[in-house]
Amino acid sequence: MLRELHITNLAVIEDVSVTFDDGLNCFTGATGAGKSLLIGAFEILLCLRGATDMIRPGADEARVAGLFELNDPAVCAQIGPIIDATIEPGEQLLITRKLFASGRSSVSVNGQPTTTAMARAVGEQIVDVHGQHDHQFLLKPLNQLAILDAYGQCGPLCNQFANTFGELRELEQRHEQLTASAALRRQQLELYKFQADEIDAALLVDGEYPELKARYALLSNLQRIKHDAAQVHASLYDNDGSINERLQAATQVLLDLAELDDSLGNIAEQVRNATLALQESAFELGRYANRLDLDPGELAEIEDRLNTLNRLLSKYVDGRAAAMIEPQVLRSGVDQTAGTDARSAADCDPIAQVLVLRQSIEQEIVRLRGENDDFSSMHQGIDELREALAAVGSHLSAKRHAAAAKLRPLIEKQLGELGMGEAAFDVSFDVAAEADSPTGLDTVEMLVRTNPGQPSRPLRKIASGGELSRMMLAIKSILAQSDRISVLVFDEIDANIGGRMGTIIGAKLQKLASASALSRSGATQKDSRHQVICITHLPQIAAFADHHIHIAKHVTGRGKGKQTRTTVTPLQGESRIDELAQMLAGENVSKTTRKQARELLNAAVPVTVH
């Protein structure tokens, strides 16, 4: 519900605050008083127009703010995602729009800056303005379809169609992606299979690389090792005057001296032990040199194995090929080459990295083969979803046609009661392309023929504001229970009609606002689903208002200092009688016209309308 509208510096309105009640709110006043500005203010607030030329002369900016109270959980759920905030039922929503003389404008929702498109989307959920323009909610074919679905209780089928449509589109997009990448996927699969086969053919063993490098270093230097070991052994033990002979002689001398001087005993013993240790080392070195036999076959085998491993390491561990798959696995092994010493290879075995890479390659092979399998099975899934979509869409279309057939005579009866007895209403159906829209297989357009002999025209192309407003009233009267828009604004609904028809329209507006005669007579209970705001020139309509508001224009000052200002005043009691009397007789108000006004007001009780 709209609780308050604040307008500043808009045309002749300098600063006005209007409070709204539940039920039917009627605005009356003399021609040119500024009633049309109220509709303009709504359109500015809801970002349906800019109109910087409406800024009050001398002002830098115009401002329109609307305070709404949201009670419908469904509407709260719709608005929340638009403004990226959680809205709970019962909370208030403040929309503020500013127009600047420079041509710029700004809009905010609950104090947070937003775009005009977002504010317009919010406004479409809570306010429906009916006048001469074609931007109202009910005039859009897509919204007409939503109203028809609500009237026909097609919600479950609509949700089912939308869900199936989403699944189909997702599967089709996935199919298109796989089709577009088929050649690349095939190339990747061939490359990964080649790499896997190459690694598997090497029969890698975790930890073998440092062992092979150490063995190769030994065998490739065997002659030098054997020669040098023999030389050392000879100098230690075999040669004349070897180190061992000289140490033995020195040991004997020290032992003899120790018999003469006890203090040399420890030294003599240490030299003797060193001599024995050296002899043992010389014996071990001799046995080691005797065991060194060169096996050319083993050296060739190890050299061939290392060549195989080094080719794999240069191809995968340096990252040139393997970076396609798992660069993070290989980064730590970039410096591990065939020339690294045995300790470094043992600290970080590159073969282990290749084995990890092999696991990653296998995962990619499984993924690519799975995508190929998915691609093959997608055709069946797409066909099944298309069949399901067609079945749900056909059922939904049948239900929509039935709802339209039921709706047609009801609306035509309403139009007859509203003085459009020759008008005809229809709903045109066109078949949309298969799976073209998540709303179903149909596109609809509400059509109206206002005069006999003329073709039916789309509702959005009705030229007369009065006919359009009455058409909206007829539709709203039928669809009130399925329409989620709570604030309805009618302009020019009384155009070209008399007092008798005004009484019927007033009664329908009152019923649409769900304000009972009991509530108007002072009872506290009100059951108001819609809040109706109506601008009217007819006292027969204004008499049905739950909240009567008078708009007047005043000129103040003299000469060049004259200023025109518009005031807004709620009417109750005798002031309301006076306004109704002036609407009946103009300035020549008499006791008779006041009596007629009072009778008109007393007679404006809920009547039976259909």
Descriptive labels:
20 helices; 15 strands; 610 residues; Rossmann fold; alpha/beta; six-stranded antiparallel sheet; six-stranded mixed sheet
Write the layout of secondary structure elements.
Blueprint: E1 2-10, E2 13-19, E3 23-28, H1 35-45, E4 61-69, H2 73-83, E5 92-100, E6 105-109, E7 112-114, H3 116-126, E8 127-130, H4 141-151, H5 155-180, H6 182-201, H7 208-220, H8 222-238, H9 243-260, H10 265-291, H11 296-317, H12 327-330, H13 342-347, H14 350-417, E9 424-431, E10 442-449, E11 457-458, H15 465-479, E12 487-491, H16 499-512, H17 517-520, E13 531-535, H18 539-542, E14 547-556, E15 563-571, H19 573-585, H20 591-603
Question: What does it look like?
Answer:
It is elongated and about 160 Å long. The chain is of the alpha/beta class and 610 residues long. The longest helix is centred in the middle third of the chain and has 68 residues, at 350-417. It has 20 helices and 15 strands. Among the domains are: 1-131 and 492-571 and 604-610, Rossmann fold (3-Layer(aba) Sandwich), CATH 3.40.50; 207-348, no CATH class. It has helices spanning 35-45, 73-83, 116-126, 141-151, 155-180, 182-201, 208-220, 222-238, 243-260, 265-291, 296-317, 327-330, 342-347, 350-417, 465-479, 499-512, 517-520, 539-542, 573-585, 591-603; strands spanning 2-10, 13-19, 23-28, 61-69, 92-100, 105-109, 112-114, 127-130, 424-431, 442-449, 457-458, 487-491, 531-535, 547-556, 563-571. The strands form three sheets. It has a six-stranded antiparallel beta sheet.
